[in-house]
Amino acid sequence: MGRGYIVQDDVEGYLSKLCEQKADPVTGLLIGQSSTQRDFVVMAIRTPQKEESAAAARNSVDKEWVTEHARQVSRMLPGGLSVVGVFIITDADAKDALTTLRQLLFAVENLISSEHLWDPADDDVTDCVTLHINPKTRKTVCRTFDTKDPKSVAKPADWKYQSGLCSSWATVSCSLNVDMLLPLPNNRTSTGNMEECLKEGLKAWAHQIESGLCLIDGKRLPEDSELTVGQRRNVRQTYTAQLLITTENKRLTDVIEQCGGSVSVTGAIHSRAYLHSNKPKARLAEKLLKRDVVSTVATRVQMMLEELLASDQESKGSCRDKQQKEPTQEKVEAPEHKKNYIGVAMATAVALLATAASMLYLNDI
Known about the structure:
Blueprint: E1 4-8, H1 9-19, E2 26-34, E3 39-46, H2 63-76, E4 82-89, H3 94-113, E5 127-133, E6 140-146, E7 155-156, E8 158-162, E9 170-184, H4 191-211, E10 213-216, E11 238-244, E12 261-275, H5 282-325, H6 329-338, H7 341-347, E13 350-352
Parallel strand pairs: 1-3, 1-8, 4-5, 9-11, 12-13
Antiparallel strand pairs: 2-3, 2-4, 5-6, 6-7, 9-12, 10-11
């Protein structure tokens, strides 16, 4: 038997409106939460069109554009919500549509998972869903693929709409102070080295978060205990958590190594995780909350790096324009000094996380 997807009824209305548009194909993302017993879809988000090439791309799918959109959306989601699949609205042949969906699904999953700083858990669901809708007949075909298996074949899945799906989802929230120093490589002119170095530093910090203790409403609950046991049904329950980070033999700030600079990440973050209403366990709440903490910090650091890279590109472009106008020796040498622009900026940068939080909330759905 295939997997079953319970879908917020608002998604049906959203997809129906997309079917009425003349664009073909229309692609997008499916947002929700997966569990070992049941899967949920709470939102569908259309892939934005490229303004400069909307006419040329009307009959084609830009895989890179779809995957980049998925990465940006994934960064904004709060704990518990993730990209669980992709959809396409087209009257093309069903077989061709499934092939396109499979390519998009694996590309999206590979890009998003490449930014994860945590180790996969045994209870992680690796099946993701694809949805093909024919805008003329409104026929819907739902299939799943195991994204961790490159040879995975399509499996049928059940797709059912339900009203008020998120109304009784529990929320777990926490605040955490962050204060860490991330080393930078000596060769600061290499973007790849800098990004990899920051990622390794964040991974070490993420491991501390992952191994920390989680108290829910001041108690350390057994992993398999049902979080909402004894609570009123169909009423959203809220819980407050504390993350107690265990100290290891060597703290991040105690490690002595030669580096070309550092990035200080300080401030407070507020994280929130949403839990499905199908008897969620304390283990799930802890996992989702910790992952939201890690992804929130990692996203802020990555955004800072991207801004610096963009500034560096603008600076280099400006220098090239000046060189074309004046090929004097003094002007020709200027770009050589610009090579260290990113390194100098990163060496003194401070990534502020004050009151940082996920950008999308389930309340808005």
